[in-house]
Design a protein that fits this description.
By secondary structure, the protein is mainly α. Among the domains are: 35 residues, no CATH class; 75 residues, DNA Binding (I), subunit A, CATH 1.10.30. Strands 1-2 form a two-stranded antiparallel sheet. Strand 1 and strand 2 form a beta hairpin. 9% of the residues are buried.
């Protein structure tokens, strides 16, 4: 049985997975042809209108369909839920005029970070690690990830950020322990390490 597409006139081939009954009901060779055939035609399918009546107010209308009288009566006199409300539905998250955005200034780099990113500071850091023989001054172990810890915190003494007498070389683990119990100025560490020479090679 040979069938032709009602839109383009091409022969419709039967796929192996399609039943004979469905193949006989087919009018178009593809969805594209079906879409072209629907251009300019109002969609007045009785089944879809029945579904709208059955579904009530929660259903969506298709362009071109007539609204049934039953639904018109149901909607008559109802006030829309958003009537009288502003464009923004949540006053808590709405941006008010004059407020400073939470992310303003996050892109700005502080003076301390600018120094730390500079080539001069990186060269100075390498020099310190070389002087201290790449050894942690707390646990005296080598081959670990090393940090430079400032005895006087940078927030208290920013001018001493590149002072050799104000820093010690510590591993990651020891650095965490220092900061866990740290005071604004580490008096015990200052007494222990100030003026200390680099460990022997």
């Amino acid at each position: 049985m040979n069938k032709k597409c009602q839109q383009c006139g091409r022969e419709i081939l039967k796929p192996y997975y399609e039943s004979r009954k469905k193949y006989e009901e087919r009018k178009y060779c593809s969805r594209k042809c079906f879409g072209k055939s629907m251009i300019g035609k109002p969609q007045t399918n009785e089944n879809s209108i029945k579904a709208l009546v059955k579904g009530g107010l929660k259903t969506r209308f298709i362009k071109g369909q007539k609204v049934p009288e039953k639904i018109k009566k149901m909607w008559k006199g109802r006030v829309p839920w958003n009537k009288g409300k502003s464009v923004h539905l949540s006053p808590k998250t709405e941006f008010k005029k004059g407020l400073i955005p939470w992310n303003k200034g996050l892109g700005n780099i502080s003076d301390v970070n600018r120094i730390r990113r500079s080539l001069e500071y990186k060269e100075w850091r390498k020099e310190i690690l070389k002087e201290r023989n790449y050894t942690c001054q707390e646990c005296n172990e080598r081959g670990k990830i090393l940090h430079i810890h400032h005895l006087e915190m940078i927030c208290i003494a920013p001018e001493r950020i590149m002072d050799k007498n104000n820093v010690i070389v510590v591993c990651k683990k020891c650095h965490y322990k220092i900061h866990k119990y740290e005071l604004p100025v580490n008096q015990h560490l200052i007494k222990k390490y100030r003026g200390l020479k680099s460990p022997d090679h």
